[in-house]
Design a protein that fits this description.
The chain is of the alpha/beta class. Helices cover 39% and strands 20% of the residues. The protein folds into 2 domains: 4-126, Response regulator (Rossmann fold), CATH 3.40.50.2300; 146-314 and 379-400, Alpha-Beta Barrel (TIM Barrel). The chain contains 14 helices and 15 strands. An 8-stranded mixed beta barrel has the order 6-7-9-10-11-12-13-14, surrounded by 4 helices. The chain binds ligand C2E and calcium ion (CA) (2 copies).
Length: 409
């Protein structure tokens, strides 16, 4: 850990009074290597010079001339690797938006401070400061060719992982979501965002989904025989719903494996703008009539929308992880989360919160009465054979740590 006096801090604010005030607050806490600038150009000179390059910048958002957001853009151009604290008189919502913008640029953010700055808030932020690790140049994600994916499907290199979905009120393990991965001979584990859209674009998604379904249903049977009553969800691409064959396939596979339709959940997300939705509507309605469960995935994102809720009789609504994680502390996320939950309840759907990453997320779900939870806090996606043992550990955790026995209000 660096000595406080060795941490180079730059304060950029057009108000001289603020510069003095912040400098004094910092000095009181032992941060004495502080440089003040009242405009962005002078600050960039400091950043450009290796000997004066700051470890941490306290940045005012509102400045005449170059404002804080523009200054951040110049930091990005310079691949600034230090940390940033935003300081502003703007309201919290504006500050949060600015914070997201900075994070999107992959600049390390310690947080934001509202003016008038309270010494305690500043100190709390500074005590968490540690020099960010040098960022590795972000690995460009390899996009695979249709030919490679075709071979992977043919050779059985696609493996189903399963991520648990649990009841928030009781902790019971209700089901799992099937998430496909590719065990690539050279590249190791390859995630679906690197091959699903290629499969869709090259007419391979039906073959891929057939394989995923086949393995998922067979696995559901194995769990059932072992006494685990799990609902198994599978992701369905809109492209799968372009031909009426799909519903026959699902019905046939379920029949052959002897899995009852209400144990199967089809998670649908609209990955691209659809032309004619009549066929998909027909398929989904018929599957629903046969008691397969339908789930609207990624709810709240541009792709899954109210129009689909109106048109399709969904049983389950999955609130997108972008509106779940940290919704307890972010007002805007919270409003979207609450609205999605209320909508699910009013339409008699089960609400599933995705992306539950920590105890705070979990507690929010408990206080708001969300039905099901999914996310790394509960479990990351697992191989089928890891599930029984995970269930054992989870149920113990429910009793000892998660206090789910008391009533949910
Ligand atoms: P999805 O359906 O929204 O699946 C949830 C994704 O969130 C999964 O990513 C999962 O690993 C990840 N996740 C789970 N818990 C957490 C958490 O706590 N925090 C965060 N940050 N992420 C979490 P994955 O497995 O990479 O899948 C990405 C997407 O690929 C899926 O999003 C789904 O749309 C698609 N996909 C996966 N398998 C299939 C498939 O068999 N067929 C089709 N058509 N699409 C699939
Ligand atoms: Ca899904
Ligand atoms: Ca999702």
């Amino acid at each position: 850990m660096l000595e406080r006096s060795a941490i180079k801090i730059l304060i950029l604010d057009d108000e001289l009074f603020m510069l003095k005030l912040l400098t004094r607050m910092l000095a009181n806490q032992g941060f004495t290597s502080v440089v003040c600038c009242d405009n962005g150009h002078d600050a960039l000179v400091q950043v450009d010079n290796e000997s004066t390059r700051p470890d941490l910048i306290l940045l005012d958002l509102n400045m005449p001339g170059m404002d804080g957001i523009e200054f951040v853009r110049y930091l990005v151009d310079r691949q600034f690797t230090g940390s940033l604290i935003l300081v502003s008189g703007e309201d919290e919502r504006m500050l949060r938006t600015a914070e997201k913008l900075v994070q999107a640029h992959k600049i390390h953010m310690l947080g934001y401070l509202q003016k008038p700055v309270k010494p305690a808030a500043l100190l709390a932020m500074l005590t968490q400061w540690a020099p960010p690790l040098p960022v590795k140049p972000s690995k460009v994600k390899k996009i695979y060719s249709a030919e490679e994916i075709k071979t992977a499907i043919k050779e059985g290199a696609l493996i189903n992982y399963y991520q648990p979905k649990v009841s928030v009120a009781s902790g019971a393990v209700v089901g799992v979501e099937t998430l496909v991965r590719w065990h690539h001979p050279e590249d190791g584990l390859v995630f679906p965002d690197q091959f699903i859209s290629v499969a869709e674009a090259h007419g391979l998604i039906n073959d891929l989904t057939r394989l995923v379904l086949l393995k998922a249903f067979a696995q559901a049977k194995i769990w059932q025989q072992a006494g685990f009553e799990l609902r198994v969800a599978v992701n369905v691409s809109m492209d799968n719903l372009a031909s009426l064959d799909f519903q026959d396939l699902v019905v046939k596979l379920a029949g052959e494996t002897g899995i009852s339709p209400h144990k199967i959940v089809l998670e649908v997300t609209e990955s691209q703008l659809m032309g004619d939705i009549r066929v998909s509507l027909e398929i989904l309605t018929r599957l629903r009539l046969k008691r397969f469960h339908l789930s609207i995935d990624d709810f709240g994102t541009g792709h899954s929308s109210l129009a689909q809720l109106r048109d399709i009789p969904f049983d389950e609504l999955k609130i997108d992880q972008g509106f779940v994680h940290r919704a307890w502390k972010d007002e805007t996320l919270r409003v979207i989360y609450d609205t999605s939950l209320a909508l699910a309840k009013q339409l008699n759907m089960e609400a599933v919160a995705e992306g539950v990453e920590d105890r705070d997320d979990w507690d929010l779900l408990r206080h708001t009465g969300c039905d099901l939870a999914q996310g790394n806090f509960i479990s990351k996606p697992l191989l089928a054979e890891e599930i029984p043992q995970w269930i054992e550990v989870w149920l113990k955790r429910v009793q000892t740590e998660l206090a789910v026995a008391d009533s949910v209000n």
